[in-house]
Specification:
- By secondary structure, the protein is α+β, with helices and mostly antiparallel strands.
- Helix content is 58%, strand content 11%.
- The chain has a four-stranded antiparallel β-sheet with strand order 1-2-4-3. The chain has a two-stranded antiparallel ribbon with strand order 5-6.
- α8 packs across α10.
- The longest helix is centred in the middle third of the chain and has 35 residues.
Length: 352
């Protein structure tokens, strides 16, 4: 049973796809949607995943089930629509449900970005010039190592305080202001796989050096991408900018949450709204999208691809740390990131 759609062009390399998914296809996703929701909703008197549909609907509302069905139906139909219409899309689509009801066709409108024209400069020459730029020599001083040691000692002092060992507690109960517990050849083994204090210092020094080298590499790559963006011509679709802003805002909210703060309260402290922040970040979001499109174009021209095994490893890592993530999105993200990393290595001469 075919899904009939119409495709119309918009500005900035964007297309609008409208159509309906027949009710039979839409309803075929009900069982999976009910099972998925039942496993994630706590309903008194039922074990997770065991509540019947009518009880689940009373608890969540019929619309919640229909929306999950719609996401599944469109998730399955979208790749086929793209393939059948031979559309070269980039990024995630913006989906709007125009009609949704039990036993009826699912109406939808999808806005997608297609690959815009990307006119590249001589990126190999730009990379060669960038490679000739001197890199700051990386060194690690004994003072830097000792500062790290001092932070470890402070952390141990706080841990002891939390365990209510009175020998390190002061009036405030923080352990600060008292003599810090020393690190010895024996107790450093409690911190990890260290043979002794000398081994800890050696590995701290190696870690600091690696971190500094990484920062220098990031500086060089930032300079390279600046030149590529400046000398390339890209007509960036609006939808890709909005998607990048969504990503930046989600990351921002996650960072605030990890700090133990409420996102809304933090915005009140900043005296800013979400829309004001999105407006401020829009130029950076557009730049990020341009960089992604440029790297993707170079990958196509130089036949750079992501290693499938590396992609699977990264997907597993993402799913472990973000259990609610959709696996197909995690795989698309991992493939893109690893492919772009391959482009950087190509430009830096590692894959030549």
């Amino acid at each position: 049973m075919a899904i009939q759609v119409s495709v119309s062009k918009k500005e900035k390399s964007e297309l609008e796809i409208t159509g309906e998914i027949p009710s039979e296809i839409f309803e075929s996703h009900r069982q999976a949607a009910v099972k998925y929701l039942a496993e994630r909703v706590n309903i008194p008197g039922f074990r997770k995943g065991k509540a019947p549909e009518n009880i689940l609907a009373q608890h969540t509302g019929d619309m919640t089930i229909l929306e999950e069905m719609a996401e599944r139906a469109l998730g399955k139909a979208y790749p086929d629509i793209i393939a059948e219409n031979k559309l070269d899309v980039v990024g995630d689509p913006a989906v709007q449900i125009t009609k949704i009801a039990k036993g009826s066709p699912l109406g939808f409108k999808i806005t997608v970005a297609v690959s815009p024209e990307v006119i590249l400069p001589d990126y190999k020459k730009i990379a060669e010039r960038a490679a000739k730029e001197p890199i700051q020599e990386v060194s690690v001083t004994d003072d830097e190592v000792e500062k790290t040691i001092e932070e470890i000692r402070k952390l141990r002092a706080r841990t002891v305080t939390e365990n209510q060992e009175p020998r390190t507690k002061n009036a405030e109960g923080s352990g600060e202001g008292k003599e810090l517990p020393p690190l010895t050849d024996e107790n450093v083994k409690e911190l990890g796989e260290f043979e002794n204090l000398a081994d800890l210092r050696k590995k701290i020094k190696e870690n600091i050096r690696t971190e500094k080298k990484t920062k220098e590499m990031q500086k060089r790559r930032a300079a390279l991408t600046e030149k590529l963006v400046k000398e390339s011509s890209v007509d960036v679709p609006h939808i890709l900018i909005e998607r990048e802003l969504d990503r930046l805002m989600a990351q921002f909210a996650s960072d605030i949450s990890r700090m133990g703060l409420q996102f809304d309260k933090y915005l009140e402290h900043l005296k800013k709204t979400v829309e004001e922040i999105r407006t401020e970040w829009r130029p950076q979001a557009e730049k990020n999208v341009k960089i992604g499109l440029i790297l993707t174009k170079i990958a196509e021209m130089e036949k750079v691809s992501a290693d499938p095994a590396a992609v699977e490893t990264e997907v597993k890592h993402i799913m472990e740390h973000y259990p609610g993530a959709r696996e197909e999105r995690a795989r698309a993200y991992a493939s893109t990131i690893l492919r772009h990393e391959g482009v950087f290595k190509f430009l830096e001469g590692e894959n030549k």
